[in-house]
Design brief:
Low-confidence stretches: none
Number of helices: 4
Order of helices and strands: HHHH
Largest sheet: none
Mean pLDDT: 93
Helix content: 55-70%
Strand content: under 5%
Radius of gyration: 12 Å
């Protein structure tokens, strides 16, 4: 997936023309993205796919509970 439609914040360590797997794009945007990145993500990737990644992330990483919860409650609302 091309990342040029997102802000540079979640992908600061990648080239701007990078083509990344969807799983990495979802993780980077949820953990480090701005609200507009999150909204863009929901336009590009189906909700079920994002939701599955969020569930996996919340089961393994309690440090990012607030960001995951925000995405689920506000962005998916």
């Amino acid at each position: 997936m091309k990342i040029d439609g997102f802000s540079g914040h979640p992908f600061w360590s990648y080239k701007k023309t990078a083509d990344l797997p969807e799983d990495i794009v979802i993780l980077q945007v949820v953990l480090y993205g701005e609200i507009r990145d999150m909204i863009q993500l929901t336009r590009l990737i189906e909700r079920d796919r994002v939701d599955n990644i969020l569930k996996q992330l919340s089961a393994t990483d309690s440090r990012n509970f607030k960001r995951i919860n925000f995405f689920q409650k506000v962005i998916f609302a």
